[in-house]
Amino acid sequence: MAWLEVLRAGARTTVQDRGRPGHAALGVGTSGAADIVAHDSANRLVGNDPAAATLEMTLGGLRVRLHGAATVAATGASAPLTVNGEPRPLYSTLHVRDGDELAFGTAPTGLRSYLAVRGGIDVPLVLSSRSTDTLSGIGPEQIRDGDRLAIGNLHGELPIEELIPPPAAAKDPTELRIRMGPRDDWFTPAARAALVERTWTVTADTDRIGARLTGPGPLHRTRRGELPSEGMVTGALQVPPSGMPVLFLADHPVTGGYPVIAVVVDRDIPAAAQLRPGQRIRFRQDR
User: Fold this and answer.
1) Nearest C-alpha neighbor of 81 from the set 64, 99, 67, 98
2) Residue 179 located in a structural domain
3) What is the pLDDT, as a whole number, of residue 225?
4) Is the C or the N end of the chain the one with fewer CB within 10 Å?
């Protein structure tokens, strides 16, 4: 059977699939690929079942050797890909041979890249998912140098198309659509207006759990005290006492005690997952 030998793990490389929804009552979040569109695109290019797992890397840097022939695809952030030192395109189906080495450089744009192998990365299921949840520690450990990763058999027919147009480059600032609430009434009218009128910047404090944002000034509340803990969702803009919002991503906690002023709509979560430190954001109310 074919397998992957990890020669260089890169930064924060993990195994991810479509997550483990439905376990919040147990204190377990959904997790899964942060950019689900890029993850699904990679799987589609190699004919994988939607449940197949990929490798998610941060800013590139992964290098692996194939043991056995395989079909692969890379999507997401624009980390340059080479096979045996030769440049190969992203968002395309690639047929590689036994002993070939795949290497990703540092992505000049975007944050997270995905490598799909036909059949999927085969690691044990935990609550019906192969995803690494970096907050709870559920799922496989983060990928390390020297790991050996089995390739599974979660695939069907290869697709007719061997190339998917990559998404358009992110604008500056990136626009994310939001719906206000559920606790926007905890904030002053000026704070609610500032959320959509100001430009926010992603700080260096960003990972799969969430991204801390900074702006010209804090979002002021109308109420003192704290909420009892309540459920949180991906895309929630939670505002701690500092007044600077935190954008929750794939591995966010299932509950929280700070008020959520707004939530990024589901279809903009993939774009949010590709935001890197220093990038600017404008929020727009979704109609």
Assistant:
1) 64
2) yes
3) 81
4) C
